[in-house]
Every structure is written in structure tokens, then in C-alpha cells.
Specification:
Layout lengths: L4 E6 L2 E6 L3 E7 L3 H15 L2 E7 L6 H13 L3 E5 L4
Parallel strand pairs: 3-4, 4-5
Antiparallel strand pairs: 1-2, 2-3
């Protein structure tokens, strides 16, 4: 992911991916709340920009996606949504 290192130990946890710029948490869409918290923590302890990459295994509810996007934007967390091919 963006030339970063995977599974990097940080204070009180392990970031899924760290790049020079980003602290990334990768998880399934159903764990979007947990991902938000982890990304904010990883960003805080590393001084990087928080990112959550959410994996959708099936078509996602548009209302939920809009809610997630609104909240992540409010918290200044970048969102990468990985969708299944149609």
C-alpha cells in the first residue's frame, strides 16, 4: 500500500500499514467503527495522516456509506473503499 511497511509495531498496538505520510488501518466494512478508532490512534502515536481502507465483500448500503464518509471527513480520516468487482 503506497510503498509502506506492513504490520508495524507502534505504541499500544500494531498499524496495518505505515508510509512516510499515512497510518493505515485495513479491515472489513462491518468493522468501520473499530477502524476509525485504530486509525486515529496510529496517526496520533506516529504523527501521520489517518487512513482506513475498508473491504466490502458484497454490495454496501448507500446510507451506511454516506454516514461513514461524513463521519470520517469530520474526523479528518481518509477513506479507501475496496469494492467487489461487478
Amino acid at each position: 500500500f503506497l510503498g509502506g511497511k506492513a504490520e508495524v509495531d507502534v505504541d499500544f498496538g500494531r498499524a496495518d500499514v505505515l508510509t512516510e505520510e499515512y497510518a493505515v488501518d485495513v479491515d472489513f466494512l462491518s468493522k468501520w467503527k473499530e477502524g476509525l478508532g485504530r486509525a486515529l490512534h496510529y496517526a496520533d502515536v506516529t504523527g501521520r495522516i489517518p487512513v482506513v481502507a475498508l473491504i466490502a465483500t458484497q454490495r454496501a448500503d448507500n446510507r451506511l456509506l454516506k454516514h461513514i464518509e461524513k463521519l470520517y471527513t469530520k474526523k479528518a480520516v481518509k477513506l479507501v473503499l475496496l469494492l467487489p468487482q461487478s
